[in-house]
């Protein structure tokens, strides 16, 4: 047999299994898509990036378990989509790394009272908003008053990448802004005199104030940047499923009940409450 004939025979034999492989891939692709309708990193679980020190939004207990308003609300929402609690995996991370970690595929969702801003929407996609509140200046110094002008010349702590940092750099232009990876570190610096005040959300400020005998000096409304769940850009299936389940939880009163549990006595935005009694 000539070399040319042997080569043609070999290629003919090779083509048959290759065609079968191609056909198998073609036939199984739709099934694989159905098995992962929300484009998750692992179809069997939901990977969530969060914070371990942002009480009452997201924090870890002494046993190392994640809890808080955002955590419980997301668990309820994902349960409505079809995920059991053991399929929802929370991991703590510094706030500044949360959105990049969602964008690059390390997490499916980021949940940590993350305010929706145009700048952040350049990095990730967001669900609809589910939480709004206040930004607060916490301090133990008499020189820091309820007048934001009293921050001029002072050292003000912020958690890197937060709404507080963005607002402070834009508004408190005569103030020395000092970045921290989390609120625990910032409040520790406040207590030891490294900074004069710390800028954080109202609910967390209230908790730290009670714990360390510090005062909330300034409250600034942040209703124009409600918190949302962050998802990878283009993952519309997951984002839309979150939105549907979130609004169901608001309409049946679940959101209201969780809010009253974690923010007792705080005013509730009407847009998150049931439209019928």
UniProtKB/TrEMBL annotation:
InterPro entries: Iontro_rcpt_C, Solute-binding_3/MltF_N. Pfam families: SBP_bac_3. Residues 45-266 form the Solute-binding protein family 3/N-terminal domain. The keyword Membrane does not apply. Keywords: Signal. GO terms for cellular component: membrane. This is Amino acid ABC transporter substrate-binding protein. It comes from Pseudooceanicola sediminis.
């Amino acid at each position: 047999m000539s070399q040319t004939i042997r080569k043609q025979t070999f290629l003919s034999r090779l083509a048959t299994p290759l065609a079968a492989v191609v056909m198998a891939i073609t036939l199984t692709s739709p099934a694989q898509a159905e098995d992962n309708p929300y484009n998750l990193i692992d179809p069997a679980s939901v990977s969530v990036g969060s914070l371990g020190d942002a009480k009452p939004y997201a924090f870890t207990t002494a046993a190392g378990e994640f809890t808080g308003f955002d955590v419980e609300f997301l668990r309820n929402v994902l349960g409505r989509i079809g995920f059991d609690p053991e399929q929802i995996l929370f991991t703590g991370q510094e706030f500044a790394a949360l959105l990049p970690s969602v964008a690059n595929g390390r997490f499916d969702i980021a949940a940590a009272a993350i305010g929706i801003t145009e700048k952040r929407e350049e990095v990730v996609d967001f669900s609809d908003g589910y939480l709004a509140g206040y930004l607060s200046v916490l301090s133990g110094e008499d020189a820091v008053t309820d007048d934001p002008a009293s921050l001029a010349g002072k050292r003000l702590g912020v958690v890197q990448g937060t709404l507080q940092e963005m607002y402070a750099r834009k508004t408190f232009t005569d103030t020395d802004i000092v970045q921290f990876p989390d609120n625990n570190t910032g409040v520790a610096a406040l207590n030891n005199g490294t900074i004069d005040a710390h800028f954080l959300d109202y609910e967390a400020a209230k908790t730290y104030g009670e714990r360390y005998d510090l005062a909330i000096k300034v409250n600034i409304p942040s209703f124009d940047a409600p918190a949302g769940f962050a998802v990878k850009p283009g993952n519309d299936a997951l984002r839309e499923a979150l939105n549907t389940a979130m609004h169901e939880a608001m309409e049946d009163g679940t959101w209201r009940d969780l809010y009253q549990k974690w923010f007792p006595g705080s005013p509730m935005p009407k847009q998150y409450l049931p439209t019928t009694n």
